[in-house]
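ARCHIVE RECORD
Type: protein–small molecule complex
Small molecule: guanosine-5'-triphosphate
Source of inputs: curated submission
Record status: active
Notes field left blank by submitter.
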Amino acid sequence: IDDVVQVLFPSPHVPAASALLTSKMWPEVITSFYGTMSDLPKAPATAPRGDKPGTDFSYVGIDAILEQMRRKAMKQGFEFNIMVVGQSGLGKSTLMNTLFKSKVSRRSALPVEEDRIPKTIEIKSISHDIEEKGVRMKLTVIDTPGFGDQINNENCWQPIMTFINNQYEQYLQEELNINRKKRIPDSRVHCCIYFIPPTGHCLRPIDVEFMRHLSKVVNIVPVIAKADTLTLEERDFFKQKIREDLRTNGIDVYPQKEFDEDAEDRLINEKIREMIPFAVVGSDLEYQVNGKRLLGRKTKWGTIEVENTTHCEFACLRDLLIRTHMQNIKDITSSIHYEVYRVRRLNESNAHPNGQAEGEQSILQSNGVPEVLSHEI
Ligand SMILES: Nc1nc2c(ncn2[C@@H]2O[C@H](COP(=O)(O)OP(=O)(O)OP(=O)(O)O)[C@@H](O)[C@H]2O)c(=O)[nH]1
Ligand SMILES: [Mg+2]
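STRUCTURE (tokenized, with ligand):
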């Protein structure tokens, strides 16, 4: 590292420049430096503000790392996994089709013949490769069957929790593998959209139960389903009531206050927190409105335009997920939710180093990597 410091930051700038780098940044800087040396923009031959040309070393080119990161990200592409959960018939499958058919991906919309969405009967993932301005993204939607339809709905959140934990487990196993893949496929659920029925009253015990348990393992974004069935006053009242219910039940939905990074972040997220839950309307059918073809729901009294923010908040939800907060949602998944899972699993394995553990623990032991586990902790 010392050698690299000397190359990157010729004296006398070494202390100042290296002080800027946290230990977290080192691998990034070093690999980028060696990996793309020929791509680096050359330091100006004449010093930008220097007095003697050729002798001013004040430009080290740190800003070029942004370009290197951009190029790397463009090559790798992005993965984003969204899950939808809620009672049967609330429009989960429809909303996901809306997302794919909306501006996110007009080109890769589902085939037209699939016009009637059947009842979902099993957890199913659908992936779409989307490309915009050279940036590739694999958007995966995990559709789940309506839940809470039984007479006894106790622990009905459990299969969803198991699915989410299974994805963490897969990722953990890949990380622990001796021959690790260069890039681990990420099937972790980055965000779970929870559909609240448009009752106009308050959260039901089953909603509270689900979100209370699941908000500890995944980013939850609650939405009011089929918001076209509520009047504007009902919608405002219901939204306020839900926020109150979430507060009194200690449910922390996305964006969680405690993970705001700075004052600017807090300001932006505070606005979102005031809007939550988004009142959404879904549709995968297009209609002619004022000469334009728009996704909407046609009724006797007019057409609800799904992507029009004066009609509903679908576009706000889409922008939050895709345009403004995708990276943050992924970061929280990886550094908070997955981390909690990882630490718990590794502690469990350490508590049973001789493989006495049953069930889940034995998976780790059967991988034959107990040394790695104890080393990690
Ligand atoms: N009024 C209204 N109806 C909707 C909306 N979204 C979907 N629907 C209708 O509600 C019905 C059920 O929609 P689905 O998308 O199949 O519901 P789901 O939540 O996936 O249902 P399961 O798969 O059984 O869990 C369909 O007839 C949709 O056309 C909406 O925003 N407003
Ligand atoms: Mg469905």
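CURATOR ANNOTATION: DSSP finds 13 helices and nine strands in the chain.
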